[in-house]
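Researcher: I need the complex structure. Ligand is adenosine-5'-diphosphate. Inputs:
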Amino acid sequence: MPIEEALRRRLIRAAADSIIAHAAELTALDQAIGDGDHGLNMARGCTAVLDDLDRIAALPLPGALHAIGMTLVMKVGGASGPLFGTLFMQLGRSLPETPDRAAAAAALAEAIAAVKARGRSDVGSKTMLDALVPVQEALGDPGPDWRTRLPTVADAAAAATAPMPARRGRAAYLGARSIGHVDPGARTVALIVRALCEA
Ligand code: ADP
Ligand code: MG
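Model: Output:
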């Protein structure tokens, strides 16, 4: 399916609006196991993307994703800025202009590998990766209903970070005391996935 400018605009706006609308929830999650800035950080980055939406949405999909990643690196800060920035920049390098589901799954796998390398992290450490990896696996499964399946998978994966002890990022300082709280970065991934699928 060609992803035309109007659709690019709609997808970017949906994801950014959702993060901005949920900033207080994300901040509350980060207050429990971090320093309470995740919602603010991500909302600042998303606002910067929306401020630049005319330019970004006019770019072909790979360029648009790369521009989003650069903006997030520059504006989000914290641990999550470089990590979400890496995710989108690598998606921009890996996705063709007109991706099908299989190409999107392959590109997301490459982007996840880049995030793992950048964060020296992997699944099971209570991070954004614990939502990204199940979503990538679901996207790789050629069922007919992946657009409706993905948000459910992402929500469940984010929720499943609660019983994990954190091993990466600020929450790792809490060790076992991080158990019982959902990881803010994983929740952000679930919000983005739902917004994109619904748009
Ligand atoms: P900071 O921790 O610097 O305050 P944020 O609060 O914006 O940054 O982001 C925290 C989120 O970043 C965590 O919830 C987690 O999902 C993600 N994160 C932190 N460190 C890593 C890492 N090494 N690998 C993957 N994700 C990480
Ligand atoms: Mg934080």
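Model: Summary of the prediction. The pocket of adenosine-5'-diphosphate (ligand 1) is lined by residues 30, 34-35, 37-38, 41, 78-80, 83, 119, 121, 127-129, 168-170, 183-186 (CB under 6 Å).
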